[in-house]
Each structure stands twice: as C-alpha cells, then as structure tokens.
C-alpha cells in the first residue's frame, strides 16, 4: 500500500470516529436537557402544588372542627342513612387532609433526625394510620431490630406501603411484613397477596403523580423513596408476590 493510501485510510477512520463521538455527544446533550427540563418542571409543579395545598389547609381545618363539633347533635337526630352520609363526609375531609399532607411532604424534604429505635414499635405505630378491613390480615415480624433512623419518617414510609398493600388486596388478603439483616443492611419487606403491578408499569410507580387510584396523589412512593435515600438506603419492588424491599445501611 502506498503511503498516500495509508494516510487516506487513517483519515477516513478518524473521520468516522469523530462522527461517532459527535453522535454520542448530541444524544448525551439531548438526554441531559430532557432530565433538566423534567426536574425544572417537577420543581415548578412542587412549588405550585405546595402553595395550593398550604392555602387549602385553613378552610379544611375549619370544616373539620365544625363537623366534629356537630357530630353528637347530628348522630342523635339523624336516621341511619343520613348518619352514613355524615360519616362519609367526615371521611372525605380526612382524605383531603391526607392528600394535602402528602403534597406538602413532597415539596418540603426536611432534614432527617436519626436515633436508635425499635423497628417493630415503628411498624406498630404505622398500623394506626392504615385503614383496617375485616378480611385483611397484616402479619408483623416476630423479632425486633434496633435501627438508627428517623422514627417519624420511617413510620410514614411503613404506613404508605401498608396502605398501598391494603388497597391492593381490596378487602380480602394477607400482608406479610418481615425484618432481617445481613452484615451491611437492615432489610424490611412488605409482601401482599394482591394482583401486583403490570410489568410495563413497574419502573413508573416511583415517579411523581403516577397513580391508578381515584383519590390518589401518586406521591406516596416518591416520598418513601426520598426518605429511604436520605437514610442512605434503597427501595425496590418485585411482582409475584408483590414485594417492596427496603434496605437501610446499618452504619448510617
Ligand atoms: N402493593 C401494591 N400493589 C399493586 N399496586 C401498587 C402497590 N403499591 C403501589 N401500587 C401502584 O403504584 C401506584 C403509586 O403508588 P403511590 O403510593 O405512589 O400513590 P397512590 O397510592 O396512588 O396515591 P396516595 O399514596 O396518595 O394514596 C398506585 O396507584 C398503584 O397503582
Ligand atoms: Mg400510596
């Protein structure tokens, strides 16, 4: 091969490498711009939603206070059908409160305050926020573990996961909560006998505002993920049976 041909070949190769690098760079810039746009959009939604949620809190507190004051009077006068309507109205007020708290929690990621806590105690406290149903059995672990964590935040995570599972089993099923550890992590699992999450949707459920419920905010799991990550841990999900796995580093 003549020197000229060799140089030409090398030039052609360098040109094709440059083209490839150029294509890679363009797609990297596109990806980063999309990410930036998404996080900017999320920040704007967060600010707007938290302002609305905050402004709704006062009128809602007034509704709640007056409805509670009226309860004994109404219960003594109403027939059973009207009592039922009254209770449904009060439950709706509670629902609205919960949704507002979710939105506010999402917008303000406060610092976590860690201390040594009994995980079983946190789980029992979390159960107080979960709607109980006659046909739903929730099994808590037999053995306890002490974990360095923010108890109130982890209680929130557990009640979110348990509420999701109770909703998923739709009035009839079993939910198993387990607590284990290996050399590095405390491992909490919440497993339910519900129908699971469609495979194509598995990676969407931790995204803000993904919900399949009429009154859901789709923020529950986003908040769970952010709290667990604040502890240096991870949260993941798998199907058959639906299992959420939380790993919190022992030394965190
Ligand atoms: N255990 C589960 N089984 C089946 N689907 C689930 C389960 N947990 C979550 N999901 C799905 O993930 C979606 C998002 O859950 P997330 O907790 O973030 O919001 P949400 O429960 O819809 O609303 P909110 O928490 O405000 O009530 C749910 O709407 C549901 O479709
Ligand atoms: Mg939820």
Could you describe the 3D structure shown?
The chain is of the alpha+beta class. It folds into 2 domains: 1-108, Helix Hairpins (Orthogonal Bundle); 115-249, Heat Shock Protein 90 (2-Layer Sandwich). The chain has 5 helices and 7 strands. Strands 2-4-5-7-6 form a 5-stranded mixed beta sheet. A two-stranded antiparallel ribbon has the order 1-3. Strand 4 and strand 5 form a beta hairpin. The structure holds adenosine-5'-triphosphate and magnesium ion.
Structural topology:
Elements (H helix, E strand, L loop, with lengths): L2 H75 L2 H28 L7 E4 H9 L8 E4 L6 E4 L1 H19 L3 E9 L3 E8 L27 H11 L3 E5 L3 E8 L3
Parallel strand pairs: 2-4
Antiparallel strand pairs: 1-3, 4-5, 5-7, 6-7
Bound molecules: adenosine-5'-triphosphate and magnesium ion.
